[in-house]
């Protein structure tokens, strides 16, 4: 029965990772997948995570199922991080949060929820966007359209075009925004632009879906929530898919959350029962370990302070690598201006390298970059900077 099945194309990002692993070149460099690396090229376990795990090991008493929506201590900690402590959304119980397997799990549950309860809605994603967005939404049968975002010539946000596109989105459709550290461009709206987007959203009546996968990697944990929090002042309903893969380094524990914000507590409770139905028929209930670690850290002042300083450490290292990358390219005699890279934020940079150049870098130098030219800046180190920039200068 399976003989007619054709092989699926490799995933554009994870497939690249597999190719990197199979490459025998001793000098190979992986700038594809969005995983943080330290100066030694390792993806470390955060100290706050290790300490939380030690505590959990001592006090954990059962491996019984969590409830469909996940652990209460985790769910409330997620809301505090998203909205800010004691926000009236929390005190009035206008939002409900479900613990999900990673940010991708949250997006998938959101997609199913939208398909079931807003069946006529089209999903709108930025052009460009994270490679998996389109597939996740299409996999449940949603129509996906794109709105203008990036000005490839100016290497900046084309805000006028973005506003013009979104002004065409009708009431009842859903628009996905990257909460911060836009993937793949590294370019976010300014506070003033977030304000204009929130006003437009309220005027048009479309539903915002915030994908918030990099809180803390841009300017800071609170600063990065500014776009989301601006929307809260103007828009009564929202979906938020958040993730702790990056800012806790908990990639393989699959820790995320889907939060639904409604106009009243009663509406939120009703809608949440339907979110739970989507989960029950999908993975039934979430895995426990990663979320228990996150809750232990977020709900403890000492561990929180340690975690915040570790997030700052990752953020600062990436910022430094951006500047070093630009300066090293200049020192190698590359005439093209790459200074825009130091202005972008988060893990990624849209380098402007063409698909041909990306292919050449891979073939001749064992340097792995996504075909769009997106570089995972978090993979740059003092050690790989010289060979990387020499190779780019060569091609
Ligand atoms: N959303 C964006 C924009 C991402 O870049 C990623 C991961 O790369 C995710 C969601 C999914 O994160 P997770 O690994 O938690 O599923």
CATH architecture of the largest domain: 3-Layer(aba) Sandwich
CATH C-level category of the largest domain: Alpha Beta
At CATH level 3, the topology of the largest domain is Aspartate Aminotransferase, domain 2
Main sheet: strand order: 2-10-9-8-7-3-4
User: What count of helical segments does DSSP give?
Assistant: 15
Bound compounds, each kind once, are: pyridoxal-5'-phosphate
Domain Aminotransferase class I/classII large: 27-392
GO molecular function, one term: transaminase activity
EC number: 2.6.1.-
Protein name: Aminotransferase
Features:
Aspartate Aminotransferase, domain 2; two-stranded parallel ribbon; Aspartate Aminotransferase, domain 1; alpha/beta; 395 residues; binds pyridoxal-5'-phosphate; 15 helices; 7-stranded mixed sheet; 45% helix; globular
Explain the overall architecture.
The structure is a single chain. This protein has 395 residues and is an alpha/beta fold. It has two domains: 14-44 and 316-394, Alpha-Beta Complex (Aspartate Aminotransferase, domain 1); 65-299, Aspartate Aminotransferase, domain 2 (3-Layer(aba) Sandwich). The protein contains 15 helices and 13 strands. It has helices spanning 14-22, 47-59, 72-83, 88-91, 102-117, 131-138, 159-166, 191-204, 226-234, 265-280, 289-298, 301-331, 340-343, 355-365, 382-394, and strands spanning 29-30, 95-100, 122-127, 143-148, 150-151, 156-157, 174-178, 207-212, 238-243, 256-261, 348-350, 367-368, 374-376. The strands form four sheets. The chain has a seven-stranded mixed beta sheet with strand order 2-10-9-8-7-3-4, sandwiched between helices. β5 and β6 form a beta hairpin. The N and C termini lie far apart (48 Å). The mean pLDDT is 95. The structure holds pyridoxal-5'-phosphate.
């Amino acid at each position: 029965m399976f003989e007619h099945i054709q092989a699926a194309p490799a995933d554009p990002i994870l497939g690249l990772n597999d190719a990197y692993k199979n490459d025998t070149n001793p000098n190979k460099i992986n700038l594809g997948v969005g995983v943080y690396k330290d100066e030694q090229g390792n993806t470390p376990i955060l100290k706050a995570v290790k300490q939380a795990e030690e505590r959990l090991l001592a006090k954990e008493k059962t491996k019984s199922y969590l409830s469909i929506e996940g652990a209460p201590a985790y769910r409330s900690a997620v809301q505090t991080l998203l909205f800010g402590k004691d926000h009236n959304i929390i005190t009035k119980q206008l939002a409900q949060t479900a613990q999900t397997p990673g940010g991708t799990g949250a997006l998938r549950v959101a997609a199913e929820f939208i398909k079931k309860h807003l069946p006529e809605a089209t999903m709108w994603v930025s052009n460009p966007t994270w490679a998996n967005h389109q597939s996740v939404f299409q996999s449940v049968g949603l129509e996906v359209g794109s709105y203008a975002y990036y000005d490839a010539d100016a290497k900046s946000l084309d805000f006028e075009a973005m506003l013009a596109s979104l002004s065409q989105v009708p009431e009842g459709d859903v628009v996905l925004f990257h909460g911060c550290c836009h993937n793949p461009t590294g370019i976010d709206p300014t506070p003033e632009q977030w304000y204009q987007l929130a006003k437009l959203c309220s005027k048009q009546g479309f539903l915002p879906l915030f994908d918030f996968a990099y809180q803390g990697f841009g300017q800071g944990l609170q600063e990065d929530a500014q776009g989301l929090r601006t929307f809260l002042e103007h828009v009564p309903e929202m979906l938020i898919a958040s993730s702790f893969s990056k800012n806790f380094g908990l990639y393989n524990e699959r820790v995320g959350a889907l939060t639904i914000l409604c106009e009243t507590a009663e509406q939120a409770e009703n809608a949440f029962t339907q979110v739970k139905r989507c989960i029950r028929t999908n993975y039934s209930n979430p895995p426990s370990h990663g979320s228990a670690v996150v809750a232990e850290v977020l709900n403890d002042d000492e561990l929180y302070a340690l975690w915040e300083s570790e997030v700052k450490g990752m953020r600062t290292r990436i910022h430094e690598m951006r500047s070093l990358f630009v300066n090293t390219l200049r020192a190698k005699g590359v005439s093209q201006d790459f200074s825009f890279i130091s202005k972008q934020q988060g893990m990624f940079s849209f380098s402007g390298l063409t698909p041909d150049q990306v292919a050449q870098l891979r073939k001749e130098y064992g340097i792995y970059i996504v075909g769009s030219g997106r570089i995972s800046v978090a993979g740059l180190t003092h050690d790989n900077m010289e060979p990387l920039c020499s190779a780019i200068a060569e091609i």
